[in-house]
Specification:
Shape: globular
Strand order of the largest sheet: 5-4-3-6-7-8
Oligomer: single chain
Distance between the termini: 43 Å
Keywords: Glycosyltransferase, Magnesium, Pyrimidine biosynthesis, Transferase
CATH topology: Rossmann fold
Radius of gyration: 17 Å
Pfam family, one: Pribosyltran
Number of strands: 9
Catalytic activity: orotidine 5'-phosphate + diphosphate = orotate + 5-phospho-alpha-D-ribose 1-diphosphate
InterPro entries: OPRT (IPR023031), Orotate_PRibTrfase_bac (IPR006273), PRTase-like (IPR029057), PRTase_dom (IPR000836)
Structural class: alpha/beta
Order of helices and strands: HEEHHEHEEEHEEEH
Number of helices: 6
Function: Catalyzes the transfer of a ribosyl phosphate group from 5-phosphoribose 1-diphosphate to orotate, leading to the formation of orotidine monophosphate (OMP).
Number of domains: 1
Amino acid sequence: MSGLTVEEQIKSMMIESGAWLQGHFRLTSGRHSGNYMQCAMMLRYPKKAAFAGAELAKLLRPLEPDFIVSPALGGLIIGHEVARALDVPFLFCEREAGAMRLRRFPAPEGKKFVVVEDVITTGGSLKETAVHVASLGCRWVGSACIVDRSGGDNVIGPSLISLMKISFPTYEESECPLCASLGTPPVKPGSRDLSK
């Protein structure tokens, strides 16, 4: 893929791996969309995951993080790849009683960290992870993802680093033209159970 920008390469990898889905979807936010980014489909290929991790690591290196942390489940593979490329430890948070918690690892107090996620729409899980780890005495110095699909409307702010930016229209369920035209309910291909 020589001659292509990193963003163009990521877009190509998303399409060829089936990670960029089109149809009628219910997003984690509850909104509906005709497009869904499921990075796990791309990250199942180790070479693609290593490429994305190395490219994010290049952008994050100036922040000199002491460790990388990700929200489980979406950020696990890419977070690990970024940590590997930076040669720093990798930790992850899990949901416990509905909240992100660092359950399996001791908190590296006083150490600098970056939170890495696969796709950001609102950035809620990423921010929740960062705030929790910071509350344990660590210093949040940056945030990163493979795909920023927030259109600039995320809770992370302008410091979010991404390899690809894209924005799709989303709709409240009551105003979704896909519900009206397709007559079928949306599917939820992601990992979070929205019924709770």
